[in-house]
Amino acid sequence: MSKNLSRVLVWFFPLLFIQIFVLDPYLLGLKYVPFIYILLFIYIPNNYPKWLVLIIGFFTGFLIDFSNYYGGIHAICGLIICFLRPNILKIIFGDVLNTNDIKIEKESFFNKLKYLSLVVLIHHLFIYLFIVFDLKKSMLILESFFINSLISIVICSFIIILTNKK
User: Fold this and answer.
1) What are the tens digits of pLDDT across the range 50-74?
2) What is the pTM of this model?
3) Among 17, 59, 108, 165, which one is most buried in terms of CB atoms within 10 A?
4) For the chain, what is the radius of gyration of the CA atoms?
């Protein structure tokens, strides 16, 4: 578990640093900014206890919220993704009986892309529902959801390709 923990920490600090200090929407002045910290939720080892995964999800979201003044939205969405993570794994890798046997880093790029896309879509749907929180502005929710999801999927896929050990 210490090897897995060190691997998580290797991803944790650089991704959070980049998300907080480089991809700050206020600093960049952009409407759409990718949320690359989602990769942390994807690469958490499957053998971690559920309570630890939920704590990692909350703590990661809390750090994003605290640094960028989001008011708890990322903490809630991090918890939602970490809570739904076993079900998402079963949807994408349905043929595996035990989700602890899945090693994301050893999966094909196509499976990683399906998993990443589903996690990003769920995460961003909740993010924009909570940010806008007004169904009268449903076009704004859909526009922000689709554009930012696409940007996040492309950037995260590029990071996965760059860090692939094969």
Assistant:
1) 999 999 999 999 998 888 777 889 9
2) 0.84
3) 59
4) 15
Of 56, 122, 117, which Cα lies nearest the Cα of 92? Answer: 117
What is the tally of helices (H) and strands (E) in the chain? 7, 0
Give the sign of the dihedral formed by CA 36, CA 86, CA 78, CA 130: positive
**Tokens at residue 159, please?**
């990071």
Domains of the chain, residue spans? 2-163
Share of the chain above pLDDT 90, in %: 23
How long a stretch of residues is the chain?
A: 166
Task: Count other Cβ atoms within 10 Å, centred on residue 156.
Answer: 24
| Torsion, CA 125, CA 129, CA 130, CA 136, rounded to 10 | 170
